[in-house]
Design brief:
- The protein is α+β, with helices and mostly antiparallel strands.
- The chain contains four helices and five strands, in the order ααααβββββ.
Length: 176
Amino acid sequence: MLKLFYVCFYIGIIYTAASFILGYIFDFMGLDGDIGFDGDFFGYGISPLKPVVIAAFLTVFGGVGIIAHKNNFNNKLSLIIALAFAITISFLIFRFVLVPLYRIQSKEVVGQKELIGHIARVVLPIRDGECGKIIYTINDNTYSAPAKSENQETIEKGEEVVIVNIENNVYYVKTL
């Protein structure tokens, strides 16, 4: 039984670390993708079988099982304790992290093309073709983005600008 706990724990840790590292590398390279099997799950609208929930389950199951076994609980009791903790933690992550994030994401999706013509405010000055920073508001949420001047002009902090183009997640703006 101890071997099962160690295998689950290390698979969870390795999967989490690999996901983090590969996600960072692929994000840097501009490669991304998404696979989802969402449906209505008891009114939540998303499936609880997300990779982050599975990784949390495996890691907690293995870790708690190892701790219980090392504290001289028998195999059956260690398994029950590990399952109880793993299911509880996985549910909490699903219910209080993933569901709220999914709801926010699904109602706040605004395409970049829809932002063209939107008014923004400069919060870090844009000088000599270098990047500055703008903030803009969509549906009562404020977002920030790197920005360059369309005409290579200097735009000072606090000035209002209009978004005229977006390339490689850099917002090109001009003064009003």
